[in-house]
Amino acid sequence: MADWSMEELLGWDKEICSLGKSLNLDWYPIEYEICDYKEMMGHMAYTGLPTHYRHWSYGKSFDRIQTEYNLGMSGLPYEMIINSNPSISYLMTENPMATHILTMAHCVGHSDFFKNNRMFSETGADTVIDKFKSAGKRVRKYMEDPNIGIDKVESILDSCHTIRYQVPRTPGLKRRNHKQLKEYYQSLILNDSNGSWNNFDINKIPLEPDTNLLAFIAKHDRYLEEWERDLITIVEQESLYFIPQACTKIMNEGWACMMHEKIVNSLDIPDNYFLSFIRLHNQVVRPHLGRINPYHLGFKIFKYIEKNQGFEECLRARETHSDETFIKTYLNEELCKELNLFTYSFNRREGYNKIIDVAGKESWQRVRDDLIKSVGLNSIPVVIVKELRKDGTLILEHEHDGRDLELSEANKVFEHINRLWHGEVRFTTVIEDETWEF
Amino acid sequence: MSVFKEHKTIADRAASDRSRHRHKIEKAIKESIKDVVAEESIIGQSGKKKIRIPVKGIKEHRFVYGVNENNKQVGSAQGKEVKEGQRIGHRRRRQPEDGEGNNPGNAPGEEMYEIEMSLEELAGYLFSDLDLPELEKKNFKFTTQEKMKRKGKRPYGIRPRLSKKDTIKQKIKRKKAAVKAGSYDPESGDRFAFHESDLRYKHIAPVIKTNTAAVVFFVMDVSGSMDSSKKFLARSFFFLLYQFLNHKYSTINVVFVSHTAEAHEVNEEQFFTQVPNGGTLVSTGLKKVEEIIDKRYHPNNWNIYTFYCGDGDNWAIDNQESLSAFKRLKEINQAMCYTEIGKLQGHREYSLFTGTGGTPERRLWDWTISIEDKDFKRVRLKESKDIWPAFKKLFGGRT
Questions:
Q1: Pairs of CB atoms within 8 A across A/B
Q2: What is the pLDDT of residues A145-158, one digit of tens each?
Q3: I need a labelling partner for A190 at 20 to 30 A (CA). Which of A320, A371, A389, B147 fits?
């Protein structure tokens, strides 16, 4: 049985909060929900959101989490927190008090990050829960509508999910609609003094290559039913909400780990709690051999900043950076070497993963740049809408950056895009230095 | 200060999505079974035999980068010695490329389910898709037989069917009631006599019993032109037919007849492994079937199915003969099927002179078209994926 009581939780929370304040942290109020492991698995399966819409894929991930947990292949996370105001977090009844203390301190770190990091400024933390609730309700309504039904809804969602990450990666940029873009380009042409805009086709759609596939389809496909358009928008909105989290995974976790370490170290906790805290902490921030543990990497970098530039710089970094710029700015030769970072890739001929570069005097920048290529959404290919022809043909293009697409997967996704778009779809990429059309 | 909420949800929120997912997996199982069927070799095996069926998980697709030299990953090896060019991890096979994806479980992240089921269950799965009511009308005959069976007791009847036990029971009942009502005193020593209303007779009524025995004849051409890959197809198709009929009938007999220029009844093993030789006279095989039916399986008691399988290479002089044998058999069969394996060879191969006096030779495929109807079907198998559609054509399921 649990070794803690509600009073204890409240007591520790009070101390954690006052320590957080003294570190100059500024976070949303946190709402802890105490749940059992089964509910925890439910929250995990539905990306933490208590009001998420339903789709079979979440049932699938629930089953997987449950199987892995039951087989002892993986434990359940200690913490899970939602970027909302108030921040919702879950505490598992089965966990001991020491774990709860660490979790609560950790959550303060996350919530502070959500509130302050610039990437999150447009995620709408105040309204997100209601937004998802309303979306969930609408999805349910469509499923129950006898004229639509669950199969049709799932089929649209299936297709949307295949391109759910094909959304802009820079949060904070306002999406201008076609009319605004047209006005903008018209003013450019009108004020053109040196003729560089002479060959510009003002009637082209889109005027700029569009990286938001879902939004483009929802906006420009005239044959979509209203409910289909709504579903596409729901998926797009959810992606946009999660993009900042994907872009700051390393920082966010590193920050939270540093905060829980600081807070717990200054808490006057009993020895037996402290021992289990140390054990847990080390488990979380340990390096994973041959892989990157975001908790470890983020924690290391923040500690390094604190050591060399002071805590003030840490606070500034957590406000202004994303993983990409964070690594570029702070991951230096010394850190690369200490972490012993290396790059590897799969060698087809030999059938092995082969190490390419190990961080050294000359190579550390290459390693760092390759790391940047794989953080956040950089590991997901960019596909843009090039043109919408008058006959309704949609021209898509993969922005090739040296990495080829996995064709078998891309073919499947292409089928799904065809299902969504009422009209012809053309899609090109580069495979082994040659243009490839699907 | 934070807020703590202890909140109990009664509803399992993932329940319906989980069941949707399982539903999808079941569908995938059905798809996979069709592939498995083409590969199993188990006619006449007991229904208890377990077979393993690999099922691909329901995958959600995304744009991803291919695993190759250009897709570099970063790892850390704190406190470990690593150098350039070093191999790490386990050897992996190259991922299957599009179109050659027959290596389940090879690509990373691919989820595989392996399901073990008995042949009976498998048959149940397979045939649940088919339009059974329609099909029963068409191809099933249940011969009936009248039989007397006991059917309870009644208060009248003939003397020999008197049930003493039940009569006594009635009397005891009446006696107890009388004691309770006070009309009879058990202490008095008076005899409590039988009454006519106590008498009970066994009742016997005729019931109609359906006879659901079937016999299946598999006739195959084992002449030189039937190579092992053709036989393999035939075997798969026969397997499916056997399983299906086995699913429908309470008892089922299987007779294997192989023929070249003469026909023999053989056992299953010989049927599929016999070394091919000799010429081809289809009619001999069919006549053998007629002979066996005459001897052992009277059409009034048995549902007879005959499935012929060959590659259509019949000696020209035999075609007329075969056709009339097919016609005769059709009369007494529930369903018949003429299966030809391999590509349709068209009319190119006219022989200049044939036994029938100079008319161009027609292949058996063309001959049999004249008698094709709902009880006699022609199907053509080119590869294992033709098997399932052929089966559906034969038994009229939805496609």
A1: 238
A2: 998 989 999 999 99
A3: A389
